[in-house]
Amino acid sequence: MPEPISPRDRLIVALDMASTDEAERLIARIGDAASFYKIGYRLGYAGGLALAERLVRDGHKVFLDLKLHDIGNTVEEGVQSLAGIGATFLTVHAYPQTMRAAAAGRDKAGTGLKILGVTVLTSYDDADAREAGYASSVADLVAARAAAAGAIGIDGIVCSAAEAPQVRAILGPDRLIVTPGIRPAGAEIGDQKRVVTPAEAMRAGVDHVVVGRPITGAADPRDVARRIVDEMAAAL
């Protein structure tokens, strides 16, 4: 069985902002209410990888949400390069060839970096999947990609908490489920379409939740982060 995860480490704060200065100011305001931060495209391409190294040195955990997807050799070598940052998680798109290459890069790097496969973005619904050319529903796509991830041996899956029970049944207890699209009760859903609350995510068997705007846009981000952690702790 995997190691128990503390409620505070279950919260991943999304640093979806334009500059590292802005991100560092937010991190200082959150203080000890959170310990795990996500860096995606916007910040990653604006000095975010160097910020990730600083965060790791300061004892924080980092989730590099870069969604790698390319020919196998490029993905494998990219994972090996990124592993040197010391991040905890790195995302790739959950296509079998990409996941196999990422797993090979992870194993060669040997740093403990965990690879997460992104099944279907939480901004997609069935209509979006049809528009993209998929005949399957979102739920069926998620299930197929989760099964492939389990067979290939990557460390976990990124999916909506709405699909988490189905994914958990496919993956079993030993792999991670990370869910974006988390909104505390009463928060605006923004551009997300498949959203749940932190408590609902815990009850669905999720390991980590990713929360962005409800924290980063709050007048008191530390207080919001603490309330989310408390909500998850009560639901566990």
TrEMBL record:
Domain of life: Bacteria
Keywords: Decarboxylase, Lyase, Plasmid, Pyrimidine biosynthesis
PROSITE patterns linked to this entry: OMPDECASE
GO BP: 'de novo' pyrimidine nucleobase biosynthetic process; 'de novo' UMP biosynthetic process
Reactions the enzyme catalyzes: orotidine 5'-phosphate + H(+) = UMP + CO2
InterPro entries for the chain: Aldolase_TIM, OMPdecase, OMPdecase_AS, OMPdecase_bac, OMPdeCOase_dom, RibuloseP-bd_barrel
Residues at the active site: D65 (for ompdecase activity), K67 (for ompdecase activity), K67 (proton donor), D70 (for ompdecase activity)
Top EC class, one word: lyase
Domain Orotidine 5'-phosphate decarboxylase: 10-228
GO cellular component terms given for this protein: cytosol
A Gene Ontology molecular function term of the record: orotidine-5'-phosphate decarboxylase activity
Enzyme nomenclature, EC number: 4.1.1.23
The UniProt record lists the keyword Lyase: yes
SUPFAM superfamilies linked: Ribulose-phoshate binding barrel
Record-linked Gene3D superfamilies: Aldolase class I (3.20.20.70)
Quaternary context: Homodimer.
Family: Belongs to the OMP decarboxylase family. Type 1 subfamily.
Database matches in NCBIfam families: PRK00230.1 (NF001273), pyrF (TIGR01740)
HAMAP family per the UniProt record, alphabetical: OMPdecase_type1_B
Name of the protein in question: Orotidine 5'-phosphate decarboxylase
Phylogenetic classification of the source organism: Bacteria, Pseudomonadati, Pseudomonadota, Alphaproteobacteria, Hyphomicrobiales
Gene giving rise to this polypeptide: pyrF
